[in-house]
Amino acid sequence: MQAEEILKQHLAKTISLTDEQFAYVASHFKQQSYKKGQAIISEGDKVDHEYFVLSGCLKSFFINDDVKMYILQFAMPTWWASDYNALYNQTRATINLDCITDAEVLSISNADREKLCNELHPVEHFFRWRTNKGFVASQKRLLSFMNNDAKKRYEELMTLYPALYNMVPKHLIAAYLGVSRETLSRLYHS
Amino acid sequence: MQAEEILKQHLAKTISLTDEQFAYVASHFKQQSYKKGQAIISEGDKVDHEYFVLSGCLKSFFINDDVKMYILQFAMPTWWASDYNALYNQTRATINLDCITDAEVLSISNADREKLCNELHPVEHFFRWRTNKGFVASQKRLLSFMNNDAKKRYEELMTLYPALYNMVPKHLIAAYLGVSRETLSRLYHS
């Protein structure tokens, strides 16, 4: 499917735009290709864009003071990703975003998103609901971290993203759950 | 200060409304008083409203499978609180919201917020940015949970909410940080 068609179908789940409006919105996005392992955002970067995934899988992650990697989010097709703290507050990146597989994305700048939201009320509605869903997912992730039961968290993850099991190496699933590979191995064999 | 004036000043930081538009928006909020310790949302409740804090301090919290309490968020004056997962997805509450002190709030229903966002583009803009900020705060909270350094997390919390130290009992600050009272005591005496 063409990139614009994927974006069009994605927006149409939440808002109605005329063909002319959609073409105008789409003209603010830029298609980009990344290779497996390639960094999109690195800690310390200036962050000006957010990314809509067309194909492949991204991960946003954080390396803590003990040099342990934690995964904040996987981003699969039609998911959005960025360092939103850095993007919205115009500060330097505190997290990393890179590619688990080869990936195609559409990027839009912070300034262009704000311009479109101001010009087209339905676009503002779309982005409000996009962030509402992101906020709720983030709160759920926090609750899952607070709940000690690793088995339950593993099952929640597999229900939320069934495609993940085959798409993502096991050590990255362990880094998302905050458990060791050995613990993860016990979970998916039980 | 009158409740409406607090809401007016809060909205005016992000959007411009005419006096007539503001009066219309304000007419959808309802003022409510709660006593210290009183529950606003309990696990299992149907959730139809969100709450804008006028005075006092609320906490949203979660009891895990080991009956350990974790605090998701403190909500001080001009902060918003609800179980947003339950509110947006029209499911039952999975977290609790109650009052650390006596509190005055303005409540608005899910349906009324959506109606106002649809009728007034600036109101949709306001709520998009309100959620953007909540999303970023939630991501920061997640990063703070992933980072092992309890001392750094304590300092971040005190920078973020300086009023908290005097307003909130120490065992609740410990429950927010996910540390024991003994560890917390070492942190604030060091």
From TrEMBL, chains A, B:
Pfam families: cNMP_binding. CDD domains: CAP_ED. Residues 16-94 form the Cyclic nucleotide-binding domain. SUPFAM superfamilies: cAMP-binding domain-like (SSF51206). This is Crp/Fnr family transcriptional regulator. It comes from Mucilaginibacter celer.
